[in-house]
Amino acid sequence: MDKEVLFAKTLEQVRKTAGAQGNCISEEQLQEAFAPLGLSAGQMDMVCDYLKQRRIGIGEAVDPDEYLAAEEKDYLDTYLAQLQDIPRLSEGEKEAVTLSAMAGDADAQAALAQVYLPEVVQIAKLYAGQGVYLEDLIGEGNMAVASGVTMLGALEHASEAQGMLGRMIMDAMEEYITMNVEESEKDRKIVDKVNKVADAVRELSEELRRKVTIEEVMAESGLSRKAIEDAVRISGGKIEDLV
Q1: Residue 118 belongs to what H/E stretch?
Q2: Quick check: is 178 in a domain?
């Protein structure tokens, strides 16, 4: 297997292992996971930095509250207060509800989904500070739970439900973060393209001391007609100094 592919797979497995352990992984587990790759000390430091940026503790769990903005803390206080009304189940009651949900009982599935709402909050806090709102992460997690409780029939034992639902919650949040990052990158590239055209138009206009045409900008900057027209369209026709 290509070393880069193996590295990516190992890193993903480390993240999943940490997620199953409260977003924490021991130094021994980390060294053991990457041992086949023979990474240098500098490369391992980069791996550690990557994990820390994603709120994964090495050796000890991180405090997720440290990464919450003041507005997120206010929202969380209000939301958790609302969750206080959810009935607390004993382990035996939770197992009974889970078994009924696995059997397809819609009422039991709805009740089980409610039971997991506080856990969604705890998992969302682990993903805080990655460019998305905590409220949105909780929403994605809640939807994953609502969907997941209807799929428990595929399990053999009630004890497997927590692991399955936990993975679905984390996968939903990670997917949302990835999608948000990709959208942000796409938006940044669009802004860069508009700015590039706007700068070329402004510089040529200042040089000629008048408004300029698309053809003149094309000849001077090497930009294509499509690139210029796209920039004008995206900006809503607000690129100044262009005829």
Answers
A1: helix 117-126
A2: yes
